[in-house]
Amino acid sequence: MNKLTIMLPSSLTVESSDPRIKTYKVGQIARAASIFRVNEIIIYRDHVYDDAGFIRDILEYANCPPHLKRHLFPISENLRFAGVIPPLQTPSHPQSKVVKVGEYRMGFAKGEKVDIGIDKPARISRDSRVEKGLVTVRVTSCKPPEVEIIDPQDVPFFWGYQVKSRKSLFKALRDKRIEKVIFTSRKGKIVDVPLLNELKSYIHGQGVAFVFGSPKKGVDEILKDEGHSIEEFDHPVINVIKDQGTATVRVEEALIATLTIYNNFLR
User: Fold this and answer.
1) For residue 66, what are the CA distances in angstroms to 55, 70, 208, 247?
2) Which CDD domains match (predicted)?
């Protein structure tokens, strides 16, 4: 499966000072990223307003399976209103304490035991490497519960996203691991059938990163503040919302609109 990345500014919460509303806003982004099977979320620093630590905490907390939160997240002011985050209900978030042989789970390993969200810890099989901390496992026995540790990339379906930080948008765009980049902007070309065909040829089955601006500044303005220009990059600039009826489109709204088009026509 080709990698899907989204790049978001550390200033995406700039419009709200209420931590409850900020938490819900970032939770909506986590939910959208999961719906559209985003593999990687890159938070690039906006020097005007940097809320990267808060955004990262909320995104990672949302992505974490419920039974593992107590292992991985100590009490934190950033997570004070975590209860308003909508549940993701992704495959890595089990809805049952009953497991089946062959089922994949995320767990927290300690010694030869691992918490996989059932009534008692599962035993790590003898031929599996023993690790400490967060692991991905495959169930090999139910009675007694036993698992083998596997590489998360071996899971054959969506297994959540990774969150990374970059010091600037320019540095994020210089990452050679990203195959194709598409900027989103109100000033971009309106997405229509001819442009969809162009974008499909541009992506050509490769991984792609969609870049989003902040509530107050577009991608071009953020790059300008960093001493660069959007023209330095030979990447498409698109507008996914034609004739918008509001003065601005929020990041989480632009994200859903953009990923809907990608999922339905370009993936």
Assistant:
1) 19, 8, 30, 38
2) HsC9orf114-like
Whole-angstrom Cα distance, residue 94 to residue 104?
A: 9
Average pLDDT value over all residues in the chain: 95
DSSP label at residue 66: G
Residue 176 in tokens: 């050679």
Do residues 3 and 175 touch, judged by C-beta distance below 8 A? Answer: no
As its CATH architecture, domain 103-154 has: Beta Barrel (2.40)
Helix (H, G, I), strand (E, B) or coil at 87: coil
Question: Residue 242 and residue 225: Cα distance in Å, rounded?
Answer: 27
> pLDDT tens digit string along 183-220?
999 999 999 999 999 999 999 999 999 999 999 999 99
pTM score of the predicted model: 0.95
* CATH number of the domain located at residue range(s) 4-89+160-266 in this protein: 3.40.1280.10
